[in-house]
Design goal:
alpha+beta, D-Maltodextrin-Binding Protein, domain 2, 2 domains, 14 helices, signal, Fe(3+) ABC transporter substrate-binding protein, Ferric-bd
Length: 339
């Protein structure tokens, strides 16, 4: 992980205090991997309802390292993560503590929270397969396993296999099919790549539009973002969104999550914020702003996300999938996936 990172203190004039006032009583301090545009309206609503100020530090990388350096002196109460890998890393490095909360247990299905109560999902995001509308069309019967089939030779684009989103997918394959079959699958997918893994999920959809490949892996919310970006809408309109493995175990989903830091100086307020983030108001904002799936049952997805159809998600608990992460990274090295 990068030693240097982009760091921004997000100051909301009506609801957020400056970092110099972090010693105040009614506040909570958040280290966030989640971008500020998404969480600003949620935190503003929390402050409106509770009177508790929210101070946010945002970074794309390096927040876990920062927590390690700060130790007991860290001002952070909560960490917002963007995938299961970082949530598990926080636990493995003993940087967080368990939270017992009836509200969290009631709002978040057991599949999407740590059995030891040290991380909790706030949203789910699907690892979809995108296919060219023009050359392949919709693929409703597609399985992830099919991406290793020779019929896709030279037709697949993806970002780095070691990106956390792909590592989580590979971990789910190991949990479902075992190490040996997953290694064979990775070898097959690599053999079918149209180009060396590169870029991000949007770049893969762009490559489909430009004819470099016909299939790509990508999180669902990127399609929503592209459809709302005049510079990228043509890319999005060139693909179909597919939900693999509907006839068997279901489609892999990852999470965004939250954890209470080990030395949280404002623990009570932090737990209040955790509970708020898991409840209806915040869940609805997540769904509308970032095209994610609310983790709380019964909260509606956005109209656009709803238009993609319902799907069955993988029932393997994320905690079990996360245990396979070291094996997934080992297999990626063994098959030299990114080379």
């Amino acid at each position: 992980m990068k030693k240097s990172f982009i760091l921004a203190s997000v100051v909301l004039s009506s609801v957020l205090a400056s970092t110099s006032s972090w010693a105040a009583t009614e506040e909570v301090n958040v280290y966030s991997y989640r971008q500020s545009f998404l969480i600003e309206p949620i935190m503003a609503k929390f402050t409106e309802e509770t009177g508790v100020k929210v101070n946010i530090v945002f970074a794309k990388d390096g927040l876990i390292e920062r927590l390690e350096r700060e130790g007991k002196l860290s001002p952070a109460d909560l960490v917002l993560t963007t995938d299961i890998s970082r949530s598990v890393e926080l636990v493995e490095k003993d940087l967080v503590q368990p939270v017992q909360s009836e509200a969290l247990e009631g709002n978040i299905p057991a599949q999407y929270r740590d059995p030891a109560d040290q991380w909790f999902a706030l949203t789910t995001r699907v690892r979809n397969v995108y296919s060219s509308k023009e050359r392949l069309g919709k693929q409703p019967e597609l399985n992830y396993e099919d991406l290793a089939d020779a019929k896709f030779k030279g037709k697949i684009c993806t970002r780095s296999g070691k990106h956390p989103y792909n590592v989580a997918l590979i971990s789910s394959m190991i949990a479902a099919n075992g190490e040996a079959k997953t290694k064979q699958w990775l070898e097959g997918v690599k053999a079918n790549l149209a180009r060396k893994p590169q870029g991000n999920d949007r770049d893969q959809v762009k490559a489909i539009k430009e004819g470099f490949c016909d299939v790509s892996l990508g999180n669902n919310y990127y399609l929503g973002k592209m459809l709302n970006d005049e510079k990228q809408v043509a890319w999005a309109n060139a693909v179909e969104i597919n939900f693999p493995n509907q006839a068997n175990r279901g489609t892999h989903v990852n999470i965004s999550g939250v954890s209470l830091t080990k030395f949280a100086p404002n623990k009570d307020n932090a737990v209040k914020l955790m509970e708020f983030l898991s409840d209806d108001t915040a869940q609805k904002i997540y769904a509308e702003v970032n095209f994610e799936y609310p983790v709380k049952p019964g909260v509606a997805v956005s109209e656009l996300v709803s238009s993609w159809g319902e799907f069955k998600s993988d029932s393997i608990p994320l905690a079990e999938i996360a245990k396979q992460r070291p094996v997934a990274l080992k297999l990626l090295d063994e098959v030299k996936f990114d080379l």
